[in-house]
């Protein structure tokens, strides 16, 4: 079972990964965006960790709802409302349970990813975070390790794609040949699940 502490560790591990990879995320956002993805997420997840420490939410659902709300209010870019919606919707789907099973979590994360697609209008293949998140959710029933690998593979596969959503879509064919920053950060988010589980 996954308890409140697991979800807090998930957010902390994501914040640490974003800190570690911030320069790379911003560098990826340079040729096909506005070179702010790393700093956007760094600001957001730093605020998430601070809020979780201060408010000490008592259930898995409230950890994620609070984290999502914080991302929406602190990240100005497209990724803030999208990641915020992902976590908030996932948290809401977890309800008020004190502990959740892995299957329940996989269902909740799927609801979160569906909400991202509804909000941003992106489908798999559009070269966005959705290209890492959808394969991750599909593999989550197997293991966190499988989900992490699927997300990483999905992120790498965005290189060959032409962007159809977000800032990178303005470049048309010139967006081909660059890995999508949001899909890359989504792979970090999913990889952090394994870290949270191992702690
Ligand atoms: P901005 O583009 O506003 O500067 P960021 O640089 O923080 O925001 O985030 C860019 C990332 O957001 C993209 O790499 C992409 O993965 C994701 N993204 C942008 N628009 C959408 C969308 N409509 N649906 C899903 N993801 C999107
Ligand atoms: Mg950007
Ligand atoms: Mg921006």
Automatic annotation (TrEMBL):
SMART domains: Dak2. Keywords: Kinase, Transferase. InterPro entries: DhaK_L_YcgS (IPR012737), DhaL_dom (IPR004007), DhaL_dom_sf (IPR036117), Dihydroxyacetone_Kinase (IPR050861). Pfam families: Dak2 (PF02734). One of its GO terms (molecular function) is glycerone kinase activity. Residues 5-195 form the DhaL domain. Gene3D superfamilies: 1.25.40.340. One of its GO terms (cellular component) is cytosol. The keyword Kinase applies. GO terms for biological process: glycerol catabolic process. It comes from the Bacteria. This is Dihydroxyacetone kinase subunit L.
